[in-house]
């Protein structure tokens, strides 16, 4: 874990979806959530942002624990 300036922490290792096809993104992120996934590396250029967002909204941590860089 890495300590953040606000006293919270985040995992050193994240889950990247750069090369994940859109049709596989939502189930992959959802599966990671079952393993306490807290860090998803995504970007608009990856082309799977809608699916990533749905998975995070449906399966991710509560909104108070979400952040973005």
Describe it for me?
- Helix content is 33%, strand content 12%.
- It has 69 residues and is α+β, with helices and mostly antiparallel strands.
- It has one domain.
- The strands form two sheets. Strands 1-2 form a two-stranded antiparallel sheet. The chain has a two-stranded parallel sheet with strand order 3-4.
- Strand 1 and strand 2 form a beta hairpin.
- The chain is globular, with a radius of gyration of 12 Å.
- The protein starts with a strand and ends in a 10-residue tail after the last helix.
- The mean pLDDT is 86.
- It comes from Mycolicibacterium doricum.
Mind sketching the topology for me?
Layout: E1 2-3, E2 9-10, E3 15-16, H1 22-33, E4 40-41, H2 49-59
Parallel strand pairs: 3-4
Antiparallel strand pairs: 1-2
Helix pairs in contact: 1-2
Biased composition (Basic and acidic residues): 60-69
InterPro entries: NAD(P)_OxRdtase_dom_sf
Region (Disordered): 1-35, 48-69
């Amino acid at each position: 874990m890495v300590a953040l300036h606000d006293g919270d922490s985040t995992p050193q290792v994240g889950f990247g979806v750069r090369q994940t096809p859109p049709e596989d993104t939502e189930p992959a992120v959802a599966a990671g959530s079952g393993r306490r996934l807290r860090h998803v590396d995504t970007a608009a250029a990856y082309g799977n942002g809608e699916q990533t967002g749905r998975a995070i909204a449906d399966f991710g941590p509560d909104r108070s624990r979400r952040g973005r860089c």
